[in-house]
């Protein structure tokens, strides 16, 4: 009998990846394809929905072929995806009516100001767990219905489908036979009630969204259907769906309340499992559905940072002081400290806990002695300090101190960034052997539904640490850096006009 593997599809902001995982949670093959980022106007970010699909199916097919060549049986697939990114397509033809509006897109910041001014903040927070911000899908979807000719009338007639990226992928994988999402993705739309687990009629009315264009909301781990005949040489069951940060929390096996992970990708996303009860934040964090599994809902608190590893990309592409992302580490290590330089990487505004769409990137404390090394070090510190602000807010909401942080994502490969993070937090930072935790989480969710694992107890033993970082900095020094950072954040805020 051939060995079974699960195919995880990880549709991220900058690339589509596919990874094969075996029953031990080991990576048995990876393929990745970048796709275009479209910036039609300042503050706008779009993707071509066809490129999302074609890049994702391309890498998936590559791995299905690899599995066949190696005698592995693809028992099923799980999907994890960039969240909030908003797509609308024709039900009859599957053709998109507009580009995907990406989570980073700020075009609806003014609409969010209007919602706040009209007093909708508390209702939205109570129902969805979210703060009012252009980050989420609702205002993006409304924008498409308001700006694409005839779109709202067509949506009302049931001719259009709205989906987050998971929905778009499942639709295409099944040849339009399944129009579904999972509760974790739905909880990022600002249209979904995280208590009733249904689309919320009041919010649909507020954003003028016809219910006919919404997908059916399913659990994060169940067999939804199989791939259509033309997708792979033989049909593959689709059995898991979760937003990427939720899948990473699962893949890090943060399955008990109080466990925390942070993913250092384009942005940084810190999530704490809060168990069966939603915790409404008093500190501008998000309450979100972690996943739904076996008829039970798990909730999480989340702090989102828009610019994490993207700040390093800016050093490469904007400033040109490095050629490759990993070179930031040697450059930052060439100096003992940032020499008083502070970089607030608010390049697309500030997310949690500030939620200031009008903040902008700010570099302060430059002297004649400042070198590229100091800027590089300040960049790593700026990423870590944003995470510290979120940890503080999360500790206040949870009423308990964090004991350790599990890390993952591309930039967590940086030993220096992880040491800086640990020094500033003052507690253990643990990097697991598998950094592909997002994809692994999707594979676990699918494999559980398919019976590849008997239950979470079986996978719980699969997490193992690659490196434990322990604090080395004196607390007074960390406190001084933190105080200077707060001053710099204040100066970065409310910088550009509405
Ligand atoms: N060795 C490294 N040191 C520091 N940063 C890195 C390193 N490798 C990758 N990065 C950063 O990690 C980010 C990519 O992480 P990834 O998890 O692939 O992102 P995403 O899923 O958001 O596309 C990039 O922003 C890059 O700058
Ligand atoms: O694609 P990533 O890894 O940058 O994650 C994007 C997040 O899901 C946005 O909320």
Automatic annotation (TrEMBL):
Involved pathway(s): Polyol metabolism; glycerol degradation via glycerol kinase pathway; sn-glycerol 3-phosphate from glycerol: step 1/1
Binding site for ADP: 13, 17, 266, 309, 410
Residues binding sn-glycerol 3-phosphate, per UniProt: 13, 83-84, 135, 244
Record's keyword terms, sorted: ATP-binding, Glycerol metabolism, Kinase, Nucleotide-binding, Transferase
CDD domains: FGGY_EcGK_like (cd07786)
Signal sequence region: none
Gene Ontology molecular functions: ATP binding; glycerol kinase activity
Name assigned to this protein: Glycerol kinase
Family: Belongs to the FGGY kinase family.
Occurrences of domain Carbohydrate kinase FGGY N-terminal (ranges): 5-251
Classification via Pfam families: FGGY_C, FGGY_N
GO cellular component: a single term: cytosol
Gene field: glpK
């Amino acid at each position: 009998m051939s060995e079974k593997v699960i195919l995880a599809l990880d549709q991220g902001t900058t690339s589509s990846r596919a990874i094969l995982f075996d029953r031990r949670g080991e990576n048995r093959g990876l393929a990745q394809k970048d796709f275009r980022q479209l910036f039609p106007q300042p503050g706008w970010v779009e993707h071509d929905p066809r490129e999302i699909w074609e890049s994702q199916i391309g890498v998936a097919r590559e791995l299905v072929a690899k599995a066949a060549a190696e005698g592995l049986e693809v028992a099923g697939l799980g999907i994890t995806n960039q969240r909030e990114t908003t797509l609308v397509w024709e039900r009859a033809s599957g053709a998109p009516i507009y580009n995907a509006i990406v989570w980073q897109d700020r075009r609806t910041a003014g609409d969010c100001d209007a919602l706040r001014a009209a007093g909708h903040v508390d209702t939205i927070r109570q129902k969805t767990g979210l703060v009012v911000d252009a980050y989420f899908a609702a205002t993006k979807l409304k924008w498409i219905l308001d700006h694409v000719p005839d779109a709202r009338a067509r949506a009302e007639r049931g001719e259009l489908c709205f989906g987050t990226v998971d929905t778009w992928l499942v639709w295409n994988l099944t040849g339009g036979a399944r129009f579904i999402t999972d509760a974790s993705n739905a909880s990022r739309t600002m249209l979904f009630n995280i208590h009733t687990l249904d689309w919320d009629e009041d919010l649909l009315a507020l954003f003028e969204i016809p219910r006919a264009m919404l997908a059916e909301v399913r659990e994060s781990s169940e067999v939804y259907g199989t791939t259509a005949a033309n997708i792979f040489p033989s049909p593959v069951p689709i059995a898991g769906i979760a937003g990427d940060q939720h899948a990473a929390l699962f893949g890090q096996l943060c399955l008990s309340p109080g466990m925390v992970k942070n993913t250092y990708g384009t942005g940084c996303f810190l999530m704490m499992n809060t168990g069966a009860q939603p915790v409404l934040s008093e500190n501008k964090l998000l309450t979100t559905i972690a996943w739904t599994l076996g008829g039970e809902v798990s909730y999480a608190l989340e702090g989102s940072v828009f610019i994490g590893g993207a700040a390093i990309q800016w050093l490469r592409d904007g400033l040109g002081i490095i050629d490759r992302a990993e070179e930031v580490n040697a450059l930052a290590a060439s100096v003992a400290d940032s020499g008083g330089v502070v970089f607030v990487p608010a390049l697309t505004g500030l997310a949690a806990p500030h939620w200031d769409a009008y903040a902008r990137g700010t570099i302060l404390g430059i002297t004649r002695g400042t070198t590229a090394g100091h800027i590089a070090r300040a960049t790593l510190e700026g990423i870590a300090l944003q995470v510290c602000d979120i940890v503080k807010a999360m500790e206040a909401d949870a009423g308990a101190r964090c004991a350790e942080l599990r890390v993952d994502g591309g930039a967590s490969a940086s030993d220096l960034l992880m040491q800086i993070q640990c020094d500033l937090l003052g507690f253990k930072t643990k990097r697991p052997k598998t950094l592909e935790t997002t994809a692994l989480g999707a594979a676990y969710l699918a494999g559980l539904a398919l019976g590849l694992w008997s239950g979470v107890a079986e996978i719980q033993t699969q997490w193992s640490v690659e490196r434990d970082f322990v604090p080395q900095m004196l607390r007074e020094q960390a406190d001084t850096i933190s105080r200077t950072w707060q001053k710099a954040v204040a100066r970065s805020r409310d910088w550009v006009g509405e």
